[in-house]
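Q: Convert this sequence to structure tokens.
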Amino acid sequence: MKRVSLASQKKYEGYTVSRPFTSILISILFTVFAILTFFLFTSLSGFGQVTDEQKAAEYKKTITERSAKIVNTLGISDSDKFNKVVEVIAGQYFSLNTIHDDNKTIVASIKGQSLEQAKTDQMINSQQEKKAELLKQQHSAFIFQLKKQLNDDQIEKVKNGMTYNVLNVTYTAYQDMILTLTEEQKKKIYNWLLEARELAMDEGSSDDKHKVFGKYKGRINNYLSAEGYDMKKEEKGWQERLKEKRAKEAAQKSAQ
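A:
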């Protein structure tokens, strides 16, 4: 047997271990440590990440809850009908989201191409027209499905629920702001807000819905200015009346 020299030996807890064996042991321990570290890092890096399936499930939950809140205002006592209407509205939210997301992807792809600006603008405009047509078709299909389940008053509530009741709030505000509006002027204002609501229903976010109404409010303000109203003066007077009203209500409340 080959003798191991004293210089190549190491004492470890009463045992004599040759250095080659020690190196092998260290190598094994290092390998095990590296493997454990790899799996630990992989687990930690994946922790907290949301999968596409989880995102889809969360979005479905969100639009279902949003739809249920709207349906709660309709006075439906039949649970099957209630759930059916919730499903129709949630399906509309999902379809709108798909149309808008697909459009964003296509527009981004167009912008990413090395094209002349005029060509890029032309392609984007064409795509926006396609999106508008898809939204129009989806809108018609949605209303058709609602009419199978709801009466006209209930459908009105659904439309207002999907647009945060901006139509009624804005129409009331114009009447409170300008006390001398004629019936014809009121009708024009209301019809424009109706048109705005139909378009806002098809937008994909709260901000975009409000932008639609903002555009139409600008149109209404221009119309009223052309009718002879000083809109800044009318708004100032309205704010003063609101301030006085709040002060009276606060005084009455404190006196009780």
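The first strand starts at residue 9 and ends at 12.
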